[in-house]
Structures are given as structure tokens and as C-alpha cells.
Amino acid sequence: MGGVLAGTRCARAAGCAACAIAVIASLGCVSTRAYEEVQFALRQEEQRRREAEESHRQLLRKLKDIETTTEADRNRLRVLEDENVQLQKTAGELREEAMRRFDQVGDRERQLVVLFKQDLREELKLQINPETNGLVLEHDVFFEPAEPKLKDVGGRLLVLLAEALNLPRYRDRIVYIDGHTDARPVTHNRELNPDNWILGARRAGLVREALVRAGVDGRRLVIRSMGDSRPVLKQDPRDPRNRRVEIGLGERTGA
């Protein structure tokens, strides 16, 4: 700004000098050539003054832009700092949630493992057939009377069984699902179930469908119908307790 003021004072002085020279020239004291040279010098000085003022204005604009940019950068930095604090808080919460779920998974796995233990099998009426070593799903617990339809409680128990079959120790094993009937002839819905072989296959198929819906890979599940050929109560093949589905673990799928 000092340069601008100095330029202004110079211009005023030059203007006064020009007036004086013009008066002197009119009186014949200064030649016309000298007068023109002074005028040219004054015009150049005026041009330099204007250029200096424009440069000064440009510098002021740049300074203002820099101040604006700096303030915007400070605002962005504050936003980033706030976001970083929030992210750290969220990360901490996610770590806590992950640990909580990890503990829950561990508890759930321990609960499912005991599904194959004797005490829980008895509580849910899940018995082991000593001859086949298969897990027995009793008809009265899992199926509606006289038809191959799952009861609600049977469906819920199969969800638990599906989770157990998907545990690391079991999930690469083939699962055999065998349908069994008693020796009495089919008298209900003979159009759908003409004989005990078909009835046994349909019961096994219902169990397979429920396990697939619950997340077991269907490629692992093999259904077989035994009809009335393998009663649990050999002394009374017509006993309703022979109606069942047995689930057995077979070879590993990678074998």
C-alpha cells in the first residue's frame, strides 16, 4: 500500500511538474522537444503506477483466497478428527460385539455337542439304535398320526439337529436318513402311500427337506426307505413304535 501511495504522490508531483513545464514552454523557456520527452516520461511513470496498483490488488485477492482455503482446510481437519474419534468408538464397539458373539457361538456349540449325549437324547426322546448306531426320531414325537407330516415340535428339534450336523466335526460327513414303518398295511391315504416302502420314503424325505431348510447341504443327505423290514421290536413288527426315522453318520464327503 505504501508503494501505491508513493506512486500517487509521484503522479501528483509529475502532474504539477507537467503544468509548470507547460507554462514555461508557453513562455518559450523550454523547447517543444524537451516538453514532449517529459510528457512521455510522465506517461510511462503513470503506466508503471497503474501496473503496481493492479499487482497490489492481485496480491490482496490471492491473500484472501489463501486465508479462505486455510479456513476451509481447518474445517475439514476438524471434521476428519471428529470422524476419526467416531470411528475409533465404533471400532471399539464392534470389537466388543465380536467378542460377545464369539462367546455366544462357543456356548452354542457346547450346547449342540451335548445333543448327542445320552441325557439330552433321553429328554428329547432321541434314542440310539444299538444295532445301526443311528439316531432315532420317534414317530409320535416328530410326525402327525397316520400321515407323513412333521409336527411343529419335530420341526424345531430338526433345526437343532441341523445345527449340530453343521458343526466342524460333522459337516463333512454323509448323513443317511432311513424311513421305517410298522408291519401293518397302509389304510390311510393309499393314493399317496400305496405301501409301507413309499410311506417310509416320504417320512425320510420330510426330514431331509427340514434339514435342508435349516442349512444342511442337501448333497450330504441320502434318504432310504426300509419299510417294515427292520423293526425295532422284532417280537412285534406291527407295534407302532417301529414307525420312526433313523439318522446315521456315514463316510466323509472328501473320502
Please describe the topology of this protein.
Elements: H1 2-26, H2 32-113, H3 118-123, E1 126-129, E2 134-138, H4 139-142, H5 152-165, E3 173-180, H6 196-213, E4 221-227, E5 244-252
Helix pairs in contact: 1-2, 5-6
Which tags fit this structure?
255 residues, 60s Ribosomal Protein L30, Chain: A, disordered N terminus, alpha+beta, single chain, rod-shaped, five-stranded mixed beta sheet, 2 domains, 6 helices
Written overview of the protein:
58% of the residues lie in helices and 13% in strands. With 255 residues, it is of the alpha+beta class. It has 2 domains: 2-110, no CATH class; 117-252, OmpA-like domain (60s Ribosomal Protein L30, Chain: A), CATH 3.30.1330. The protein has a 5-stranded mixed β-sheet.
**CATH domain fold name of the largest domain:** 60s Ribosomal Protein L30, Chain: A
pLDDT averaged over residues: 75
SSE pattern, N- to C-terminal: HHHEEHHEHEE
Residue stretches low in confidence (pLDDT < 50, at least 5 long) are 1-11, 112-120
CATH architecture of the largest domain: 2-Layer Sandwich
Helix content: 55-70%
Radius of gyration: 49 Å
Largest sheet: 5 strands, mixed
* Quantity of strands, as a count: 5
Provide the spatial order of strands within the biggest beta sheet: 1-2-5-3-4
**Number of alpha- plus pi-helical segments:** 6
Beginning-to-end CA distance, first to last residue: 91 Å
* Approximate strand percentage: 5-15%
CATH superfamily of the largest domain: OmpA-like domain
Determine the structural class based on helices, strands and strand pairing. Answer: alpha+beta
